[in-house]
Amino acid sequence: MTAVSVPIEHVLVLAAALFAIGLVGVLVRRNVIFLLMSLEIMMNACGLAFIAAGARWAQADGQIMYMLILAVAAAEVAVGLGLVLQLQRRFNNLDIDAASELAG
Amino acid sequence: MSLELALFYLAALVSLSATVLTVTRTNASHALIYLIVSLLAVALIFFLLGAPFAAALEIVIYAGAIMVLFLFVVMMLNLGRETVAQERRWLAPRMWIGPGILAAVLLLELLYLIVGTEVTTSGTGVSPKAVGIELFGPYLLAVELASILLLAALVGAFHLGRRYMRARREEIE
After folding, report:
1. Is this complex's ipTM strictly greater than 0.95?
2. The pTM is what?
3. Largest Cα span, chain B
4. In A, residues 25-84, which contact B (CB 8 Å cutoff)?
C-alpha cells in the first residue's frame, strides 16, 4: 500500500492547532453541548497525532490507539449527553454554571 | 510539491477553518454541521497518511454515529431563538481574551517543541488486515477493556436517559 510522505512536523502542528482550538472552546463556552463538542475536537486531535506517529513507522499501533480513543469518545458522549438531558430537565437551562450547587 | 501533498494541506486548511467555525457558532446544529465537515477533512488526512481503516472509522463512527447522537439530543432539547441570543451574550469578546491568550501560549510552547524535526512519514500504508492482526493479538486485553468501558457507558446512558424520558412522558400525559 502506498501513501503520501508528509512532513510529520506539519501533521503534528495541525494536531496541536486543533487541540488548542478545542481547548479554547472548553474554556470559553458555557453551553454543555458546545463543551462536549470541544472535547470531541480535542480527542480527535489526539487521534490525529497517533495516526501520524503510526504512519511515521508504518506500524499498526497508531491506528489501534486511535480506535481506543474512539471507544473512549463514544462512551464519553453517551454519558455526557445523558447528563445534558438531566441538566435540561432540572434547571431548564444548559448553562454549566447552573450545576454548581455542590459549591455551597 | 506533488498533488497528494497539496491535498494534505488543503484538507488541513478545511479542517482548521471548520473547527474554528464550530467553536464560534451560536446555533448548536450549525456548529455540528461544521464539526462534521472538519471530521471528514481529518478522515481524508488519515487516508492520505496511509491509514484507510482509521479513515473509514472516522467517517462511520465519528462523523456518523457520534454526531448523529449529538443531533438527536439537540433536537430533543428543542433549543429556540432565546438560546441563540443567550449564546451570543455569553460569547462577548471579553470572555474570549483570557482563555485565548492562555491557549495561545500553550500552543506556542508546543509548536516550539515540534518545529525543527526534518522527518517525513514513511509513505507506506498500514492495511486493515495488519491492524486486525495486531488488534486481536498483542492488544486483545485493550479490546476487552474497551468493550467493558462501552458496556458501562451503555448502562450509564440508559440510566440517565430513562428518568428524563419518564418525566417527559408524565408531562405529556
Report:
1. no
2. 0.91
3. 66
4. 25, 27-31, 33-34, 36-38, 40-41, 44, 47-48, 51-52, 54-64, 66-68, 70-79, 81-84
